[in-house]
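Help wanted!
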Amino acid sequence: MKLATYKDGSRDGQLVVVSRDLSTAHYATGIAERLQQVLDDWNFLSPQLQDLYHALNHGKARHAFPFDAARCKAPLPRAYQWADGSAYINHVELVRAARGAQVPESFYTDPLMYQGGSDDFLGPCDDVVVANEAFGIDFEAEVAVVTGDVPMGAGPEQALDGIRLVMLANDVSLRNLIPDELAKGFGFVQSKPATAFSPVAVTPDELGEAWQGGRVHLALQSSWNGRKVGLCDAGPEMTFHFGQLVAHLCKTRNVRAGSIVGSGTVSNKGVEGKGGKMEWPKGYSCIAEKRAMETLLDGQPATGFMKFGDTIRIEMKGRDGQSVFGAIDQEIVPLHKD
Amino acid sequence: MKLATYKDGSRDGQLVVVSRDLSTAHYATGIAERLQQVLDDWNFLSPQLQDLYHALNHGKARHAFPFDAARCKAPLPRAYQWADGSAYINHVELVRAARGAQVPESFYTDPLMYQGGSDDFLGPCDDVVVANEAFGIDFEAEVAVVTGDVPMGAGPEQALDGIRLVMLANDVSLRNLIPDELAKGFGFVQSKPATAFSPVAVTPDELGEAWQGGRVHLALQSSWNGRKVGLCDAGPEMTFHFGQLVAHLCKTRNVRAGSIVGSGTVSNKGVEGKGGKMEWPKGYSCIAEKRAMETLLDGQPATGFMKFGDTIRIEMKGRDGQSVFGAIDQEIVPLHKD
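Answered by r_m:
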């Protein structure tokens, strides 16, 4: 099934069930008001939502209305945990190669993961508010999952069973603030502002055969100022699948219902093109990668980061060509508009 | 006023108001069921709780019962944000000096802060469950605050106004997992398991003159296996006050109601003793500091980390000698008891 959270002026919004084709929606009132409630009591509440979803898909839900992604908050407008992996090791290889650094051997067996702020997520069409363009504004197109309860010490297979929902994320990054925070070793506080999520979160069964081995085998589209810059396959090159990422997170602590775990920037390897020159035919899911590609080819980056007024659209189509999660579609705006 | 959350089998527990002397309590039913609700709507709900607190202190609350810290969850059993600073620079100096490392100049103007997991906090008397003693189990006695909404870009003074509650924390640390995570630069995921908080969270006015300039001017007691090992003054040596810590956190993002911000290990400078030898008369608020002291004096640490069955008690007395927050009082236990 597909779930979203409509804005209603409250902090947590109103849970709605959305039809498979994203054309109609229905308030879940009477079953649950907020998505966190459903995650807290999944086995009892999710079958009731599933029934409503079935009725909605068959045009039999009595109070259905046209679904509008612009009215959505993030499916979880605030969450008790947001831990973002960096599971596409090609992303790490590319960025490090551009600055002449090696990838430590341990990175191939021990996932990179940072703990992010989860008190103030952005809806899919909310503005990305930044105080200063000089911070180096970048998008990061990712896949993310929402978990149920996963006990401390669970292995990757058990952790995989704990995944309840899948969605897309724009893990906005302030690139010029990252080096100082990386040097401190304590992770990202200022260089990772509020993250945005797709209009709709879907149960893994909605992905059909595209959900395999804890990976989403579909292409993630990124369009920057209306120009398609990335069409990266989220499947085979995900070095650590979501079960492995959740297991990493729960090695020394319980992971509780409603935790969000991200994939990190979806990234595909380059291929050798004409004359032995590297090419990246699938493009990029963040500007930092584009700049790394340019540095590797030409010795320096040519592409600047995002400016106020820039837009970013992130979407994933199913094998039927339909949008699975709806689109993240945001504009970068200054903190104080005059 | 003083607030706590009683265990009732649910994830969020039941909000109770606790008398100033911690002897009696009263359910806040009818006003709010959960502390997060109060933080979400502070101006409307907190005066009602204040009235109940007043009645309770004067023996006029109708359904008061004896307060029992052992029945408490953390005041916020789960939260939307837990960001822990390292605001006592002496702690950083001590630990770095022991390994022959310098403290970068920027650490005196730019706070260290990591984002922690906030989905599964421990109550003040809950066991600290760890899979393996070899992880290097340590306590960290800290002060923490809970904020209201603080907008992006707020300065230290505005941030200080956004502080709603003060409490104590035991930021359990797995010391032997820290070096690898520090080297990755992405912060702490596995080396910082679930944090515990004091039975009671108090509004800053409860601290009277001990709350000055965003610091708590009282001594924090740590007792390890019943032996007092630390009586550290939390006030004057706090390099960054809580307003500065919250301002650091909200530089690039909004901080939302119910965010918890920690001070890091409370730490006091050593003094020159007899024969010019350094002494630390106020002791330590984490074992890592004790080991650093030993290394500076004798070239190597003599004190081991915590073992299964060890206990840690953390408490703060007011100027009247009464416990302000109640005591954190925990035992270290293995993940799988036979």
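OP: Thanks! One thing I noticed: The two ends of chain B are 43 Å apart (CA to CA).
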